[in-house]
Specification:
Elements lengths: L18 E2 L2 E2 L8 H32 L15 H8 L1 H32 L5 H9 L6 H11 L5 H8 L14 H25 L4 H9 L4 H12 L1 H17 L2 H7 L11 H11 L3 H32 L1
Antiparallel strand pairs: 1-2
Helix pairs in contact: 1-13, 2-13, 3-4, 3-7, 3-10, 5-11, 7-10, 8-9, 10-13, 12-13
Length: about 325
């Protein structure tokens, strides 16, 4: 009897895959070139704008600070501008005021933080307060300065109220020891609305059940804020601290110009006012560029130190 035999299939070692589902000619797990380039294409416009309108002018300003003014216009002068800068008592006064702003920064952050907490906890009238708190942020610094010039005048309403309770008048804008605190206080009042909005946005991401659990456990409001709200809003607090510091260093020119003009005796000088004075009044743009460079370095160092401190505090909590 003949036995029929079928051919035995020959098995071959599998080779590398050269195709994938819907993507012929590519290895499995390797993304197409278009997908790998997509993130860079998307961020390219923002990087271009920052490079052209931020970094390039910054580099030009730093380079310009090493050139001369007046008869030496355009000539390289090395560090001469910085030597003149730190020998100027008005610039040294402005840098001392920067140190004061750093010390007052916690107050500028604490006020909107506490008010945002009360709004989030829905105190009576919280909807009205939200609009009232933000209203000063939409006013021009010139308008705000003019209003507070009237309120803080020596014979103005604020001193009239102090006299009504038996306190002597205060020369809010004429006393060198008081004027800078008055200007900074007005700035905090005028700008805390933006920080309030940022804090409220941070509260939207906070887990409300944690606050409810803390209340059930009998935690007081200060303990809830310290142990629940502050750790939960650590990123928001970092953002508000940095942006508030930048605002205090670069957004007070209008108030200083309208309220005190840098006086009395230069006590309210800030770097940005000094830069304007050297550029616009003294026609010394190279010296103004040097002051701008110093201000940039100060802002960078202070911001990095603040972030490092906040991150360390967050890890300890």
């Amino acid at each position: 009897m003949a036995v029929s035999s079928s051919p035995t299939p020959v098995r071959t070692a599998p080779g590398p895959r050269t195709g994938g589902p819907g993507v012929p000619g590519t290895r499995r797990g390797v993304r197409p070139l278009s997908e790998r380039l997509a993130p860079y294409v998307l961020v390219a416009p923002a990087v271009l704008v920052i490079g052209v309108f931020r970094l390039y002018p910054l580099a030009l300003g730093v380079n310009f600070s090493f050139t001369g003014d007046g008869d030496r216009n355009g000539q390289a002068v090395g560090l001469d501008n910085y030597t003149v800068l730190f020998a100027d008592p008005m610039f040294r006064e402005s840098m001392r005021n920067v140190g004061l702003l750093v010390l007052l920064l916690p107050v500028a952050v604490l006020i909107p933080g506490l008010l945002a907490t009360f709004v989030y906890l829905r105190v009576p009238g919280h909807r009205v307060y939200r609009g009232v708190y933000f209203f000063p942020a939409v006013l021009s610094p010139v308008i705000i300065g003019a209003i507070f010039n009237l309120l803080l005048a020596f014979d103005g309403p604020v001193n009239a109220l102090l006299a009504a309770v038996g306190l002597g008048p205060v020369d809010w804008l004429g006393d060198p020891d008081v004027a800078i605190f008055a200007v900074v206080g007005v700035h905090i009042w005028a700008t805390f609305g933006m920080a309030l909005v940022v804090f409220l946005a941070g509260f939207a991401t906070l887990d409300a059940s944690l606050i409810d659990a803390a209340r059930v456990d009998g935690a007081s409001l200060p303990k809830v804020i310290r142990h629940v709200i502050v750790p939960g809003l650590s990123r928001t607090i970092q953002f508000v601290v940095v942006t508030t510091m930048i605002g205090m260093l670069t957004s007070m020119f209008g108030l200083v110009y309208v309220m005190t003009g840098g006086g009395p005796e230069g006590s309210t000088y800030l770097p940005e006012y000094y830069i304007w004075f050297q550029q616009g009044q003294m026609s010394r743009p190279a010296l103004a560029s040097a002051a701008s460079t110093v201000l940039f370095v100060v802002m960078l160092v202070v911001g990095m130190l603040q972030l490092a401190l906040l991150r360390r505090t967050g890890r300890e909590d």
